[in-house]
Amino acid sequence: MTATEALRGGQTDGAALAGKVAIVTGGASGLGRATALALAQAGARVVVADVDAGAGREVADLVGGAFRACDVSDLDANRALVDFAQEEYGGVDIAFLNAGVMTGCGVGEDFDLARYRRAMGANLDGVVFGTHAVLPALRARGGGAIVATASLAGLAAVPLDPLYGANKHAVVGLARSLGPALAPDNVRFNAVCPGYAESRIIDPLRGMLSEQEMPIIPAEVVADTVLRIVTGDSTGECWFVQAGREPEPFRFR
Ligand code: NAD
């Protein structure tokens, strides 16, 4: 039984993360929603942050947490989110910096630069600004865990959307470098790198995925991987999540 199934069944033992406070960006939908449920089931108090206030509030209600509207591409909004979590729950121990978009920026001279800015804003600035905003709060608690959502697109070439690949590779690079850099602060920084996972972000790709008989990873498997990272001791790792395989840190050559 996954953590999320256990929460839905009312079996909240609350052990592993009891007393911890978690922020989940992009928590209104897909992987963020599933992870908010998993963190809450493990006992954490969860602040759901998203630009989608309607769905975000629903998830917050579901996990008995709080909602904060936040556009992660805005530094001040990230700071306000952390302030909110501290006021609401007294501190922050975990940040799942997950909000993201796949805008389809095009290729070569046809790059759509407005879409590029939007994608970089959510997928890369969201992680950098989120980290910048949350670090003082984590240090104030004596340490903590940050998990950023990268992607298989951060580990392999993405010919269909090179700019999505570029911002996800940047998140992978951040995880590899920030992991060791933040160790003296007792802050662990890892990335989660799912292949195609069940969420609305893959809607435009569903035809291609079914044609190629590509398996889709349940969102709960990604959520359970994030939980495993948060409760483990790894840092600077990029956890590759594939369908039908045990998640594991990606081994760079
Ligand atoms: P999703 O569309 O279901 O969820 C993304 C959430 O992020 C939405 O609730 C959206 O409102 C929110 N969001 C978007 N831009 C935002 C912003 N600027 N500020 C705050 N919130 C914002 O898709 P998902 O698949 O759950 O995406 C979550 C993350 O997973 C993304 O970073 C995505 O790139 C990554 N990812 C997804 C897959 C997949 O196959 N689903 C695979 C690898 C990585």
UniProtKB/TrEMBL annotation:
<protein>
    <submittedName>
        <fullName>Dehydrogenase</fullName>
    </submittedName>
</protein>
<dbReference type="InterPro" id="IPR036291">
    <property type="entry name" value="NAD(P)-bd_dom_sf"/>
</dbReference>
<keyword id="KW-0560">Oxidoreductase</keyword>
<dbReference type="GO" id="GO:0016616">
    <property type="term" value="F:oxidoreductase activity, acting on the CH-OH group of donors, NAD or NADP as acceptor"/>
</dbReference>
<comment type="similarity">
    <text>Belongs to the short-chain dehydrogenases/reductases (SDR) family.</text>
</comment>
<dbReference type="Pfam" id="PF00106">
    <property type="entry name" value="adh_short"/>
</dbReference>
<dbReference type="InterPro" id="IPR002347">
    <property type="entry name" value="SDR_fam"/>
</dbReference>
<dbReference type="GO" id="GO:0005737">
    <property type="term" value="C:cytoplasm"/>
</dbReference>
